[in-house]
Amino acid sequence: MKKIVRKLFKEKKVPIYTKIRDGEVLKGKNAIVTGGSSGIGFSIAEDFVKNGCNVVIIGANEEKLKKACDKLKNTKFYTLDIEKTELINENIRNITKLFKNNKIDILVNCAGVTNNKSFFEVNSLEFERVLKINVEGYYFMAQAVSKIMIENKMPGYILNISSSSESKPAATPYKISKWAVRGMTQGLAEELLPYGIIVNSIAPGKTATPMLNASQLDDISCNAQPNKRYIDPIEIAQIATMLVSGIGNSIVGDSIYVSGGNGTFYI
């Protein structure tokens, strides 16, 4: 049996899609997706649209946002660098006006950066930038959006895209930031649930995205994960749709691991 298993793991792995049928579970809802021009954020925006949602994608690169919107229907974009946290509050007010009814139902915090340097190589500027985008950006986006939801007396959803790194020893700025996102998700869930706002996170393992230079692979093998393959962004997007659709309303303050076992045990 062991020989058979090893042989299977060595074979080329190609994406296999078991798609949930596109429907209307998000019909009439309005969503903001940061980092929506590529990777996981793009796939989430795409799946939202296929399920009836109106979407505004946010990013710092206007050209990339325009190209993403050309591929998506029922989607607008807004150029905003969430590293500049002092600008978030006033810009969220402007983004709200892009929706016909001036309301926000869903926020997906997906914008993020990584840093591959070792503990001995990281400098303070690099550390600050990762924490500024991956933690402060999430925090102040959630603050600005939840204020609008509360003002309008509208229940809503905030979904943070974390990482399976949130459960592992953290000696890099990226891993430290994901530990912070995990704690923030739990804290905001407790803070906002009385207002009808449900906060959760998804913790992906290694995913076939531009961040890992793995978005165009025809072989998704990945020995760094127990299931021996990369996660496809579509898999994460479908979980995201479920979490903000009302189907998962009893899931509150949790991290949903989509990691091929990478958040469960070490290899």
- What coarse outline follows from CA principal-axis ratios? globular
CATH superfamily: NAD(P)-binding Rossmann-like Domain
**Given the helix and strand composition, which structural class is it?**
alpha/beta
Q: First CA to last CA: what distance?
A: 20 Å
Query: SSE order in H/E notation?
Result: HEHEHEHEHEHEHE
The name of the CATH topology is: Rossmann fold
Spatial order of the strands forming the largest sheet: 3-2-1-4-5-6-7
Please state the second-level CATH architecture: 3-Layer(aba) Sandwich
Q: Count of helical segments? A: 7
Number of strands: 7
Folded structure, characterized:
- This protein is of the alpha/beta class and 267 residues long.
- The chain has one domain (24-258): NAD(P)-binding Rossmann-like Domain (Rossmann fold), CATH 3.40.50.720.
- It is 37% helix and 14% strand.
- The protein is built from seven helices and seven strands; from the N terminus they run αβαβαβαβαβαβαβ.
- It has helices at residues 2-10, 39-50, 62-71, 88-96, 124-151, 173-192, 233-243, and strands at residues 30-34, 54-59, 75-79, 106-109, 156-161, 197-204, 255-258.
- A seven-stranded parallel beta sheet has the order 3-2-1-4-5-6-7, with helices on both faces.
- Strand 6 (197-204), helix 7 (233-243) and strand 7 form a beta-alpha-beta unit.
- The chain is globular, with a radius of gyration of 18 Å.
- The protein starts with a helix and ends in a 9-residue tail after the last strand.
- The relative contact order is 0.15.
- Mean pLDDT is 87; it is low at 1-9.
